[in-house]
Every structure is written in structure tokens, then in C-alpha cells.
Maf-like protein DDB_G0281937
Amino acid sequence: MEPPTSPFKIILGSSSVARQKILAEMGYDFTIMSADIDEKAIRTEKPEDLVMALAKAKADAIVSKLQTSDDQDKDAKPSILIASDTVVVYEGAIREKPSGEEEARQFIKSYSGKHAATLSSVFVTNLKTGFTKGDWDKVEIHFHEISDDVIDKLLEEGLVLRVAGALIIEHPLIVPCVKDVKGTTDSVMGLPKALTEKLLKEAMNA
């Protein structure tokens, strides 16, 4: 699939290295802006509603930041903003980034021999026309046993402390522990490619 070399400037509203990598793999040039929002202040019962609410809140914060920016070039290409969020759902409970090592350990240990799901939202905004649209993608992951040794190494490295549910299925230490994935790895990493592509196309034609 040929990526569009469109007359649009793409803004990725995320400081996530994984999301940046995925969008680059899709063939897009983009700039990065992060939203400074209090994610804990946004609560919903359903994980689907939560990831959508968080992505929209991030988008709103960045749009507000852009509107108050003095150096915004009025003659620049029209821009499309991509905001996203990911949570892990385990036995009906929503898991966001762990509060520390102990919670991360509990999270990873609980996946051993069991399964969890990720929900990732994508919310696009055409900053010229005001068009907005969002949706979410779900992936189910089944695990083999995860040893204490693997958990210790993951915690020592620290990357798991910065992701939802302390879950990184593409990590070399975790790959052998993954039994089955119903869905795509890019979605688990935080930016489902197919959904992002679909929403971007709609935003570009809006």
C-alpha cells in the first residue's frame, strides 16, 4: 500500500516511542506534540469509553495549545492530529501504567498462564475543517508461564513501568511467553495501523 504523500502535515499527539515507530513504519512524516493532561481525572466504567475519552482529552489539549501558539504559521499546510490511548483489561479490571515496581510485578505475574486484552483508541482531528472521528481496537493475548527470573529482568530494565498494564508483548524476554495473539502487535503497542490509516484517510477527505 502506497502511503499518501498528501498536502497535509501530520501531528502525532504522543511522546510514546512505540507509537512514533509505528507511524513512521506506515510511511508518514510527522511532528510530535504531547498533551499534558491528568489522565487519572478521567474515569469511566467501560474500558472502551475510557480509551476514547482519554484520546479525545489529549486531542483537545493539543488543539488548545496550538490555538494559543504564537508561532503558528497561518499559511502552513492543513494539519491532521492523531491522538491515542491504550489500556489493558485483565479479568474485567482496567489497568493503566503501573504506579511502581511492586504493582508492575503483580501485573506481569498475573498474566502468567492466563490471558489479558488491550484496548487502543485512535482519535483524528482535521485542524482546518474541524472534522473529528475516533474508534478503538481490541487485542486478546494468551500467555505461557512467565518466570520470576523474566519478571525480575523486566523490572530491572524498567521499560514495563512506562506502559499500560506493564505489558510489552514485543519485548525479547516476553516473546517466548506469548502463546497466542488474537489481533495485531501494533495495536498492543498503542497505534493500530489499519484503524489509523482508515481514520487518516477520512480526515484528509473531510
